[in-house]
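Inputs:
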Amino acid sequence: MFSLEGLTSIIHEWLNGHLPATLALLAEFVIVGVAAIGLFAILGLGLVWMERKVAAVMQIRLGPNRLGPKGIFQTSADTVKLIMKEALTPSNADKFLFNLAPFIVIIVAMLILVPIAFAKNFQIWDLNIGVLYVTAVSSLSVIGILMAGWSSGNKYSLLGAMRSCAQIVSYELSAGLSIISIIVLTGSLKISDIVASQENGWWIFKGHIPAMISFVIFIIAATAETNRAPFDLAEAESELTAGFHTEYGGMKFALFFLSEYINIFIVCAICATLFLGGWMPLHIGSWAAFNHIMDYIPSSIWFFGKTIFLIFVIMWFRWTFPRLRVDQLLNLEWKYLLPISMFNLLLMTLIAIMGWHF
Amino acid sequence: MLEEIAITEEGDLIINVGPQHPATHGVLHLVLTLNGEIIKKVEPHLGYIHRSIEKMCESLSYRQFIYVTSRMDYLSAHINNHACALIVEKGLNVEVPQRAQYIRVIMDELTRIASHELWWSAMAMDLGAFTPYFLAFREREKINVIMEETCGARLTMNYMVPGGVMTDLHPDFQKNVKAFIVDFKKTLHEYNELVTGNVIFQSRMKGIGYISKEDVISYGCTGPVARASGLRSDIRKIAPYDIYDKVEFDEIIETGGDCFARYQVRIKEMSQSIRIIEQLIDNIPEGDIQAKTKAVLKLPKGEFYQRVETARGELGVYIVSEGAAQPYRIKFRSPGFSNLSALDHMVRGYKIGDFIAAMGTLDLVIPDIDR
């Protein structure tokens, strides 16, 4: 019900009816690309606005409230400002790498979008290794960040990039392990299978305590991987001014900024897919009537609702906690999160083998 | 040129923190020698906001020079003025009316609270928490309004004059201050809940930036920095001025010597300031607000020294007078300068994040260091 499958199949059939097969495929590529970029823009603007509003609520102030209702056009105006700005390249920067870095970061962010299911039967490509693809591609963004930090010719940038690398590489482990603990239950890496397996309840409820532990670990690791406070050491305003993107301005900076928010969206979307059922409505076992009522809410609303809730949680962290120190950050990962998630994975495997989950 | 000396022969990285840097809260320039994340040396370079206030004071009369001193430690403007007023009164042997003394002490303590609040917010921001900044500014705003009503200024107040205070209190003063006290007692609890009890915050502060009592003495640190290392240094207790000897309050002493001890001292000092204000606010005696002084003040020939406890530590004013209407030489001993000198000792061997935390707990006001 309310799936977007109809829409996509109508477009597909219309294109195939009017164009040769090859051209129709190309046209579909273009449509998907434009839609992805459009989604990027909307998400970027929307999430920046949301962050400012969340921050304002936390900090007893109003936030943007001048441009449009509740200031929703403020971020658009800021984007226009950033586009108008001169794209400076510092004189002692490595010009090629300096200009390449923001594109690598943004392309990586765009690539991860591929297997995410936004609604029932509405995803760009339902890879059979969907989750593995996401973890593999997301680690590429380190290259962009390191490139940006190194090529800037700024010591603050270099320090920020180094910190960022250490952080992302280490937190990927526990993020990966908590993803695996759900894969153990689903038996498939395909996003559509993972979502389908949660038809009679979300994994966070069905997987007992280990699922909750891996949910918490995933949220922490996701916050760290996206370089958000309290793990924003790569930027660490009071220490490194702006970390790896200190030297960037104008649209090049905007690309970093945009990719940060897209990455938040993606990790929250993955988290929602794995633990909270993706676009799957809230179903409870055999309560047929309840499940039926829940089905009336469109699947895209379920997906975006869950994702935005998780994004809110991550923003909440940012505006509440102080920043960790670099060694504390790595201690947290290697001494606490990694052993816990390994043990958790064992426990989850036991549950899956014995069939104790619901 | 800079590239050549950026990395030393031992392979250490040299970075400039400041003069424009978010954590220095002003135009302070610190040259850090780093080995990876570890700090090997911190070298402060001063003078970016030097306005030669001491020299300016030498060409101003004893009534005028007070106004310049509000611009030194602008967060303790009242207390700076107080020190200058006291030294002129000392030189002229003027008896300040009781009412003026009460008002001065209340104003000092309000300033101290406002200053500590700003420090608390900036400190939390240095550690990466943004929200405390707004919480503290909400309370500080109330003090600013009280100040504005009575003194006409919100930041660089010029309210204390030789012989007393400039004008009488605003009629609403007592009411507003009492309302503020009631609010503040609630919000102080909120501060502790949000920041003091936070695990991340405590792990960033405990055991960081240690300085021993002996080192505190040898570096000449005063104020909360010294008291956090167990040194009794509160001028309000050691050499009471005005009516500080009549009010009851505790000198906060911590023995930790680390960032967390310095943090605790300031947080507890805010409660003590409230205690002082509570004792005085209902008992302000009626009477004159200024002693009768001559139109042109001339300090007798000689040397004069007066020290007061600002929010940052001991502020000393030293005047050499030749008997003229202007001081022959004036020297301010500012707390920030001496406290900054201990920074290098505090943070050697710690990490960049610790350096920021330690600098935050020193509560530096750059115009106070440079003058």
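Chain B has 16 helices and eight strands. Flag for discussion at group meeting.
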